């Protein structure tokens, strides 16, 4: 059963470098898991009873599978789902993978616009934009835009919000 | 853009009002020193220090020792109360309120008047004896939550409290947001008045039932800590006597009901909600009189909450959603307890009627039922496996019972679902244990969030949250038909929401 989504897709994809960033994140996560699995193999004696014999071969298998998903699958899936758009009077994003979230905030209700650049993001020349409103739930986050695009969008939104804002609450 | 102006600022932010922060041009009444001495308000923090000292010096429990200890603690309390009073000052200027305090490390807190969301005056018993009140000034609580967003001026005379409240709330009118009734003379109009018969609803309200239970808990702790010699030696009653047990249970239930009624009476005694000018004023309380003032212009909607027990007798509770007001559940109360008709009359006076609620599609009912029964089904499955293996038939029975209980729960949860969009307002309703309907003004919506999980996608449903800068930040229409989402959002907020459906252009 395939049914039309509750809202349309925003027009623009994220920067393609985001895939590289997500791959890098996946590699780091996989390494952490691998270190954990190695520690388990080294420090838990194979003679221990209970589920240990099963775990000794199942944990490495799970880690390898997770690494394949984190590095080879998830970045591309994420890239396909994440989209964003700034229309004439609103900011609109779609995020998520299994559970999808569409968020729409009118420019007139914007309170602050933040641009953040994490360490990894700086390596890939990316930046995230967060658009905050008076509501704790009404925050629009656009992750991983090219850094100059992010700054341009933030400046543009801040200026327009200043012009059209009413009470913003 | 909007910076966080509320906070500890060092000096003359208030600009045109020449108030030196250290001068603290006004002081609280010296009578507050006596109140604080008696309640050990400041001295309380020394207790953890004093106990080990007492233990170390070999406190032997003689009469002179007790008397000197009591005198010493009272003197200490008097001293700290006096010092606190001496170092506390406040000033209300034309554009800001400044509070200066701190014994050695001075703190100056400045709150611009246009950030003030409400003023609350409370008068606990001792304060009333001395003719004093405690004034809380609520400042805008943005993304930051917590107690930091308020100013507490403890111990001014009632007249000074009234003056302060009027000054703080009216000073910004010429520059701030204009209300429709600004220039009319302040006429009082009564919105709601507590009828003492409504106290009979209290035993069916969870929060009031908790009051006597907490008292019983405290009593048990006390008897645990009493020395053995002081406990009366009662012969345990014959527990096998069924009649005695029944009587005890009935007595306990009666006491519980009585306790909840008393608890409700203490909090809500002579509750009265009136409009004066552009503000709503709520006064209530038997022992501590509370006086809360909310600006009508900042009210974005109301919530009407009915617990499962309250629905049996048609009782409800109404709260206002006020932008930027922290701790809204306590301060935003418009009708703490009352019959449904009364509650809705009140809500309609504040927010336009969005029309009758639209039911959600039948797929939503299936989803609610599945979710309510899933725990029971899991237990049943486990029971089916374990009954032949280990003979755990109890598990199977429990699972079947849980599943059966899930059916009315799921149906009840589905029956609570609904949404409506009118020309000036919208409404969403959900919940079974506490069914809550939020009625919001159109302008309250600062954004939309649409969520669709994998299972909702299969069922053609979506959860739509109206993001609001008041209350708990968002009110959701659970499981509405996915294809109705853009139309509902546009009808309930404004043309900007059409971006959800309009193709990019």
Number of strands of chain A: 7
Tell how many strands the DSSP assignment of chain B holds.
20
Count of domains of chain B:
5
Q: What's the helical proportion of residues of chain B? A: 25-40%
Structurally, the number of domains of chain A stands at 2
- Specify the number of helices of chain A: 4
Explain how this protein is built.
The complex is a heterodimer of chains A (169) and B (505). Chain A contains four helices and seven strands, in the order E-H-H-E-E-E-E-H-E-E-H. Chain A is elongated and about 70 Å long. Chain A has two domains: 12-80; 84-164, PH-domain like, CATH 2.30.29. The longest helix of chain A is centred in the middle third of the chain and has 30 residues, at 52-81. With 169 residues, chain A is an alpha+beta fold. Chain A starts with 11 loop residues before the first strand and ends in a 5-residue tail after the last helix. Chain B is of the alpha+beta class. Chain B has five domains: 1-13 and 89-176, PH-domain like, CATH 2.30.29; 29-87, no CATH class; 191-224 and 247-286 and 307-350, no CATH class; 361-416; 417-505. Chain B has 14 helices and 20 strands. Chain B has helices at residues 31-39, 47-56, 63-86, 125-129, 158-170, 206-225, 242-268, 308-313, 328-331, 340-350, 362-390, 393-416, 454-459, 485-492, and strands at residues 7-8, 89-92, 96-101, 107-112, 116-123, 132-139, 150-157, 188-193, 272-276, 279-284, 289-295, 299-307, 315-322, 333-339, 418-421, 425-430, 434-441, 445-452, 461-468, 474-481. In chain B, the strands form four sheets. Chain B has a seven-stranded antiparallel β-sheet with strand order 7-6-5-11-10-9-8, sandwiched between helices. In chain B, strand 16 (425-430) and strand 17 (434-441) form a beta hairpin. In chain B, helix 1 (31-39) crosses helix 3. Chain B is globular, with a radius of gyration of 28 Å. The two termini of chain B are 29 Å apart. Chains A and B meet through strand 4 and helix 4 of A and strand 18, helix 13, strand 19 and helix 14 of B. Strand 4 of chain A pairs antiparallel with strand 18 (445-452) of chain B.
